[in-house]
Amino acid sequence: MLGTLAQVAIGGALGAMARFGTQTLSFRLFGPGFPVGTMVVNGLGSFLIGLAVAWLIDREVARYSPAIVVGFLGAYTTFSTYALDALRLWERGEVGLASFYVLGSVVLSLGACVAGMALGRSLFT
Length: 125
Prior knowledge:
This protein is mostly helical.
């Protein structure tokens, strides 16, 4: 049990740092007007979780699932931040932009997860 908690903690620390880096880079590239960083993190995180699950299934490396899936990707993806960003856009009266953000994030994340799973299955099976 302690080993599993250590995996989650280490993976979580790395995932949080990766999230911070991705969002900082997105902010520098695109500015503060639209939460591009959160959208990128959600899409990329969804792709990576699909890829990781495909890789971990029926393999000896499944023992690293707590570090990769729960720790790293759990800290990296930002669905709660996504909800807050959507609410902020809505509260600023940018209803159309908020709607685009909500729908775009969901479609991007689901599509990325499907793509990651498909790629993972083709590479790892």
